[in-house]
C-alpha cells in the first residue's frame, strides 16, 4: 500500500518517507522504538488525510507553509503552531501530538 497522498492543490506527499528523512543524523536514526512511533504517526496522518476533515487540515497547513519565506518566518510558524496547541488543551501529550 502506498503512503502517498495528494493535496487539493496537487502536491503529493508521503508522510512516512518524510518522517524517515527527518531521523537522518539524529539520535533517533538507529532507535527502532522511536522509528516505530514515528511510522505510526505517519500512518495516522495518511489515514486522516483521506477524510474530508483531513483535506481541510492539509489545505490549511499548505496555506500556512506558503507564508514561510525565511528562517525567521519558519520560526514564527513553529511558534504559532505551538501556541495554538497550548490554547486548545492543557494536556502536554495532546499538545505534542497536535504540534507534530
**Sheet with the most strands?**
2 strands, antiparallel
- Mean pLDDT value: 81
Number of helical segments with 4 or more residues: 5
Cα radius of gyration in angstroms: 14 Å
Termini gap: 23 Å
Low-confidence stretches: none
Order of helices and strands: EEHHHHH
Q: Largest sheet, order of strands side by side?
A: 1-2
Q: Got a strand count?
A: 2
Task: State the shape.
Answer: globular
Work out the strand percent. Answer: under 5%
Helix fraction bin: 55-70%
Please identify the oligomeric state: single chain
Going by helix content, strand content and strand pairing, the class is mainly alpha
Description:
By secondary structure, this protein is mainly α. It has helices spanning 15-23, 32-49, 52-65, 71-88, 92-99; strands at residues 5-6, 12-13. Strands 1-2 form a two-stranded antiparallel sheet. Helix 2 (32-49) packs across helix 3 (52-65) and helix 4 packs antiparallel against helix 5 (92-99). The radius of gyration is 14 Å and the shape is globular. The model has no long low-confidence stretch (mean pLDDT 81).
Quick take:
This protein is mainly alpha-helical. It has 5 helices and 2 strands, in the order ββααααα.
Summarize this structure as a short list of keywords or feature phrases.
100 residues; 5 helices; single chain; globular; 67% helix; two-stranded antiparallel sheet; 2 strands; mainly alpha
Q: What's the structural blueprint in terms of helices and strands?
A:
Blueprint: E1 5-6, E2 12-13, H1 15-23, H2 32-49, H3 52-65, H4 71-88, H5 92-99
Antiparallel strand pairs: 1-2
Amino acid at each position: 500500500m502506498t503512503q502517498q497522498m495528494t493535496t487539493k492543490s496537487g502536491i503529493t506527499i508521503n508522510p512516512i518517507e518524510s518522517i524517515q528523512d527527518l531521523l537522518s543524523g539524529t539520535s533517533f536514526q538507529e532507535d527502532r522504538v522511536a522509528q516505530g512511533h514515528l511510522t505510526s504517526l505517519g500512518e495516522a496522518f495518511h489515514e486522516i488525510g483521506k477524510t474530508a476533515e483531513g483535506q481541510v487540515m492539509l489545505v490549511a497547513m499548505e496555506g500556512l507553509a506558503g507564508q514561510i519565506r525565511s528562517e525567521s518566518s519558519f520560526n514564527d510558524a513553529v511558534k504559532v503552531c505551538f501556541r495554538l496547541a497550548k490554547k486548545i488543551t492543557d494536556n502536554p501529550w495532546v499538545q505534542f501530538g497536535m504540534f507534530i
